Each structure stands twice: as structure tokens, then as C-alpha cells.
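User: I would dearly like some help making sense of a protein record. This is the protein in question:
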Amino acid sequence: MATTIAELVFIPAPGVGHIMSTIEIAKLLVSRDHHLSITVLIIKPLPNPTFGSGSGITTYIDSLSKSTMDRISFIQLHQDETPPVMDSKAPVASTQAFINSHCKYVRDVVADMINKPGSGRVAGFVVDMFCTAMIDVANEFNVPTYVFFTSNTGFLGFMFYIQTLCDDHKKDILELSSSSDAMISIPSFVKLVPTKVFPATIQSREGLEIFLFCARKLREAKAIMVNTFMELETHAIKSLMEDRTIPPVYAVGPILNLEGAAGNMSENDVIRWLDSQPPSSVVFLCFGSMGCFEEVQVKEIAHALQRSGYRFVWSLRRPPTDQTTRAPTDYEDPATILPEGFLERTAGIGKVTGWVPQVALLAHHAVRGFVSHCGWNSLLESLWFGVPSATWPIYAEQQINAFEMVVELGLAVEINLDYKKDMFNHEVDEVIVMAEEIERGIRRLMEDNDVRTKVKEISEKSRAAVINGGSSYASVDYLIQDFLVAEDVMVTEVAVV
């Protein structure tokens, strides 16, 4: 018996969070239909703060190229001998130019795939939200492109709305985004959105141009897959579905890598410490792969933790020490940055550490609350495990994520909604969040039972969404049918002679 295989070409952005999410959706698709086969084209990153590049992601990418998964293969794309220079004065444009420089190598790989005897039919490209320039390559092969949007539907709607304001209504977006006290109506949100939570990207001319380019290219996609679920973002998803100028939206999440929660973590020092703590007693502070603060802010966090009296685990990372890696590292001795005597005073209730297995900590019964930078993957993980978040956004779209979680959905408490840090230039003076504000947010996080109840309810819904009969499970079914029909990939059976 023989079947025709539909080959999909996945192109994730060169960041560990983007690649991991892409691999998880790839694994899900091939597990759901044996007529699908996926080739993941990996862009090896340059030292670049946009995606948290560093030795860790390089090692991870190298491991993928050597890995074997059923009907999923990995190809590391070639790079130009002289890749685009990362201009610190135009970091977003530099990043986009670097990704776009791989278009010709994608073209070569896909041409080889099509010409290879016995290969399946290329049924579509699935590209990251930052790789939409690859749509032009797919068009050359007369192949449809689907976008895997690794953020939320609210932000997707925000992108489309800003592009409409600029292109159709000739609004000055730079002037709009600089109005710190303005509130505007955006179709993907029920509540008015304050301009102070607009991402820093659209507050500069070069960043806005890249933002608008991505939004325009998103409209060219055949469909957009979003890492969310209907029960979480009901209004946002319906608002996009009702807009005929926007491609079909498939809510396929939560797409999570939960291996860290299921694996053997007994040898991890932090996990062993958590094992000795009472259930639901610990606040966990972690600010993502790029999350780090200067000494003055670190001390304010330390004072807040000590005053709150709550047990804590704090993933404390050191800011980049040079302009080559631009990625945080662990402190050899955290005492050098913390207030004098802090570690001794909190020895019985706290744990200061470097990088931690975030999923494993959120899954632990001792963790009650999560102080988060509001990266979308992190928020989905916290919801999955029923752990409420306190918002401390730092960069990218995290301010809008924080607004959505606190104001729009009531699923988090606020430490700050509009905090922004220049991740391209760590010498810029930071706004300091004072200990009193941090302590107040931690207390709300640990004591607000209304938010906790809502998070527990959405946790159950997130798990129900991805099983048979769930909303995201059904979306994936429709998506697979779209893939199979897209290029008239017909499943045929012939008798074995």
C-alpha cells in the first residue's frame, strides 16, 4: 500500500523560543496525520539581542541538525560569507536583513527537494512571523505560505490595525505611539488600549517600517496559525475571523515544550530545594532568556522580596559584559550584586540562582506565583500549570501581553504594564521600579484569590483545548485538511502486488 506524502517546509526565526515552538507544532502535525512530512530549515543566528543569541542557542541548533524525528528532518541553511553587519543604531532592520539574506538558500533547498526522485509534493511553507519575506520564495514555486504566529491573537490584531491606520488612514504612528496618556480602540481588544503599552519597535522610524512590512506580508499568507486557544482569546480570534481582509486564523495552542516538567529533575539543586517547601508557598521570579537588570534594580527587587516575607526562587541573570554576545549570563557569585547580607537574611526562605528549567518550576507544587517578563510562551506555560503571573514586561510585544493578561482578561496582576528596557544598548539609563511597587505586586500575586480562581479555570480549558473534542484539536484538523488540499495532495492507495 502506498500513499502520497505532503511535504511542508518550516522556517522558524533564529531564536530558541521560536524554534522550540515551531518544532512542537511540527511534531503535533506529523503525529496527527501520517500523510505529512516536515523539513525544518534552520537559520543559525549571529550574535544578536533580538532573539537572545548566544552559545546556548548555537549548541541547541547544532543538536537539531544531528537529531532524528519521525517524518521531521532538519537542514541548517548556509549563510553568506560576509553576513549583514548588526548595526546597533538600526538593530531591527539589521535583524530583518540577516533573515532575508537566507532567501536564496531556502530557494536552493526547496528546488533540490522538488527535483529529488521519490520525494513528496511540497504542499506549503510554514514561516515564522519574522520570516514573512520567505513568502516571495514560496510564490516562485507556486506554493502557499502559512504563518506560525508565536505571539497572541490580540497582538496579531494590533499589527493589522496599526498597518491599516498607517496605510489606509495615513495616521502618524510615531506621533500616536509617543502620546503617553492616550487610549485607542483596537478591534482585537474589548478594552481601550493605552498607547504607553505599544512596543518600542514602532516608536522609531526604522522599527516602524519593519513592523509595517511584516504586517503587510502577513496579509499575503494563505492562513495564520496562532499559538493560542479559543477559550483564552475568544474576542480577539472572532474579531480577526470576521475581518475578510485578514487571512483565516487557526488557534492551535497552547503549543508547549513540556519535557522539562516531565523529565527527571531530581538532581537539580533548585528542584530539591522546592521539594522541601510547603505546597503553594513560593513566588518564582524569572525574566526570560534576555531578562536582566542593572545593580540598582536588582537591589530594589531584593528589598521587595525580603520585605514581603514570602518564600522565593529568583532566576538572577547578569547583563551582557560586551557587545559581542549581548546575551545575559549567570553570576559566579550573586552576592556581588545583591544588598549586603541579603543571602544570609533570606537563607531559610529564598533561593537565588542563575538559569533555571522554567517549565519544571512552574509545574512544581510549591510554586504559587510567577513574576514574569510576559513572553507569550512563558504566559502560556504559567496558565497551563494554573500559576498566576505578576507582569513585568521588558521588550518586544511584552507590554501588550501584560495589558491583555491584566486588564483585558483578568488573568494576572500588575507590577508594571509599560516598563521598557533597551535591549540593544544596556548603557541607556533604565527606569527603576521601586521596592514598594514590586512588593505590592508580589503580595497581590500571592494573595488575590479571584485571579487565582480564574487562572485555575483557564488552566483546565487550556488542557481541554488540545485533546480530542477540544477547540484547538479541531483547528489542527481543519489546518491539516487545508495542507492536503492546498496543492491537490490526494491520498491514494494501490494494491500491493
In short: The two ends are 9 Å apart (CA to CA).
